[in-house]
Design a protein that fits this description.
The protein has about 90 residues and is mainly α. It is built from 4 helices and no strands. Helices cover about 75% and strands about 0% of the residues. The longest helix has 27 residues. The termini are far apart.
């Protein structure tokens, strides 16, 4: 196994360990909900501030999507519960 493959496997194993804990699941689910990962980034209005808000919202949303994908890879049996936020 190459070093990059080993590192990637270790990242997923670490996340699986976190998601095995009830507190880890609650925290991770809360972060997903706060990221608005399934929502829109659009910030209505015509001003530059709204464009910046939209860019911020998109970055937040993209991070949530990344987290959801990582959780699905690390702990596929828990992803439904995490995405639903049912704890």
């Amino acid at each position: 196994m190459q070093e990059t493959e080993f590192k990637r496997q270790q990242e997923l194993e670490d996340l699986a360990e976190v998601l095995a804990l009830p507190a880890g699941q609650r925290f991770f689910s809360r972060m997903l909900q706060l990221s608005n990962y399934l929502g829109a980034s659009y910030a209505p209005g015509q001003t530059r501030v709204d464009a910046l808000t939209m860019a911020y919202n998109e970055g937040l949303r993209r991070m949530g999507q990344f987290m959801a994908t990582e959780a699905a890879l690390a702990a596929p049996e828990k992803i439904g519960k995490l995405l639903a936020g049912k704890f």
